[in-house]
Design brief:
Radius of gyration: 18 Å
Pfam families: Asp_Glu_race (PF01177)
Shape: globular
Largest sheet: 5 strands, parallel
Protein name: Glutamate racemase
Function: Provides the (R)-glutamate required for cell wall biosynthesis.
Order of helices and strands: EHEHEHEHEHHEHHEHEHEH
Strand content: 15-25%
Family: Belongs to the aspartate/glutamate racemases family.
Number of helices: 11
Keywords: Cell shape, Cell wall biogenesis/degradation, Isomerase, Peptidoglycan synthesis
Distance between the termini: 32 Å
Strand order of the largest sheet: 4-3-1-2-9
Bound molecules: D-glutamic acid
Number of strands: 9
Length: about 260
Amino acid sequence: MEKRNLPVAVFDSGVGGVSVLRELVKLMPLEDFFYFGDSLHAPYGTKKTEEVRELTLENIKRMARRGIKGIVVACNTATSAAITLLREQYTDIPVVGIEPALKPAVMEKEHARVLVLATPMTVHAGKFVSLMERFAGRATMIPLGCPGLMEFVEAGKLEGEELERYLKKLLYPYLSGGIDAVVLGCTHYPFLRNEIQKVMGPGVHILDGSQGTARELRRRLAAMDLLTDRQRPGEVIFEESIPEKIPLCRFLLGC
Ligand code: DGL
């Protein structure tokens, strides 16, 4: 098959990367996508960096063997652990990662107070620390590791009392602190956006990096002349290290 008509690989530690996949499909409806979620080894965000790096490289190597024309690491945690190595290994296709959308959040207003929700690994990673330093003079950024939050999405619990209790406990210390924006720095969290909004209140702007990631992939595919020339709706293939999660992936794609 012509390279430009191969699928794009989209990888996450579980079902969360579907929040990026749905933006990819919206922006590039003619493209084929091959999604793999590694729910069997999730969460990645509470593991050691080396382990996440190994899992990510291994999973993507398996995906690449099937023939792909690009890679989207739809996981902030895996991006911080492995994107540099992936870019060294796959030089003839675009390799796009995702990082917490700090830039649009600090543009909100002068000296905005921005709460960044992410996995414990992401908030401690060097990549994130330097990203925060870049914007340090312009806004107050408050990183908050959220162990246990992605598990709600993995279990398909996008609302309900248990989630509400968890979020209230997690966010309570920030409710009276004049937070202007919340950045969702984990690809599982956009599926909890409504519940997070309810707890934070309607005046708080909630942002994530999925649309920016989709635009970046399109730019990179176009620059390498790899956009498909087929004129039919693209297909999405789902694979999961826990195959029973595939129906949840399909459901989340339509959310
Ligand atoms: N979805 C992943 C991210 O964006 C992390 C979830 C996990 O801890 O595995 O960081």
